[in-house]
Amino acid sequence: MKKIITTIVFSFLIISCGLKKSLIDDVNRLEGKWILTKASFSDNLEEDFNNQIPYLNFTNKKGIGGNGSDGCVNDVFHLNFEMINNVKGRNVNVVVEQSTSGYRSKDSDRIDRFLEHCKKIKRNEFVNAMEKTTSYKIKKGSILIFKSKEGELIFHKE
Predict the structure, then answer these.
(1) Which residues contact 22 (CB under 8 A, 6 or more apart)?
(2) Cβ pair 143, 126 in contact under 8 A
């Protein structure tokens, strides 16, 4: 009887571990540049981001994440992100950090002008959608979908 119970429990563990895909399993599939192609908050990405479409570049050097652009003056403002695996499957939290690396305090007037420009695009909506992500899915190896209660972000691998 003890062998039967042990066999059943062991079989269940093997099957459940085999069925659950997680963020760790997808590290290699995520690596590379992913460009935003659709967002629940936008009907026209090119117009809403003044032709500077947000993108994510998974480098996976420190955890699962990397850098990218939130669509605001790509050569000035930078986006760093990390996906943190929750308890099960592909449930994640996404942590986003925005910076203006490479610019010193004497460039503050220039940065202020860029920030004024950035207020006219849907930069905050993009970052908020990223941060509210609760799960993700990879389709056909080239489509990445971030999902939340409010909607989704769809990226295509470059």
Answers:
(1) 85, 88, 89, 90
(2) no
**Is the separation of the CB atoms in 66 and 56 below 8 Å?**
yes
49-73 residue pLDDT tens: 888 899 999 987 767 888 888 887 6
> 3-state class of 43 per DSSP?
coil
Q: By CB neighbour count within 10 A (0-12 exposed, 13-18 middle, 19+ buried), where does 71 fall?
A: buried
pLDDT tens figures, 83-107:
876 655 566 777 777 665 555 555 6
> Across the chain, where does the E strand assignment appear?
32-39, 55-58, 64-69, 78-85, 92-99, 135-139, 143-147, 152-157
